[in-house]
Design a protein that fits this description.
binds heme C, single chain, mainly alpha
């Protein structure tokens, strides 16, 4: 049952990715606005502002762009293994990855001591 839900989410993400790809014009490397548009496909799990909405998905907001890009490339190449993120990362170009990383890195977060 949980698997079906997961598959549905991945399918929805794929559709959103296709949509974002269709909408984006010629993009510039590390374009946070283009990354934001592309990140519509990620929001179902990672939240619209990178604070995850799925219990097994990590927050992406305010993470260093270099870290995010490295992880996405690792999922794409298979160096970092995860069934869902492999499917998500496979169609991403280097430019997509730079833009997505720039978007999530640009989100401002405030940490407060407990
Ligand atoms: C169906 C749910 C789902 C969708 C959609 C999704 N992710 Fe993920 N993502 C996950 C999960 C679950 C993990 C944790 C995987 C692991 O354990 O390695 C993860 C991990 C990541 C990580 C590693 C974070 C870290 O702290 O190491 C990055 C970066 C990431 N996702 C980016 C994206 C981007 C960008 C998109 C959209 C293009 C996206 N994800 C779409 C579920 C999702």
């Amino acid at each position: 049952m949980r698997r079906a839900t997961f598959k549905a989410k991945v399918a929805a993400a794929g559709a959103a990715l296709a949509l974002a790809a269709g909408m984006s014009g010629p993009a510039v490397a590390q374009d946070a606005a283009a990354g934001r548009a592309k990140a519509a496909a990620c929001a179902v799990c990672h939240g619209p502002l990178g604070l995850s909405t799925a219990p097994d998905a990590p927050n992406l907001a305010a993470q260093p762009a270099m870290y995010l890009a490295t992880q996405l490339r690792a999922y794409r190449s298979g160096a970092r293994k995860h069934e869902v993120m492999a499917v998500i990362a496979r169609p991403l170009s280097d430019e997509d990855i730079q833009n997505l990383a720039a978007w999530y890195a640009s989100i401002k977060l405030e940490a407060t001591a407990p």
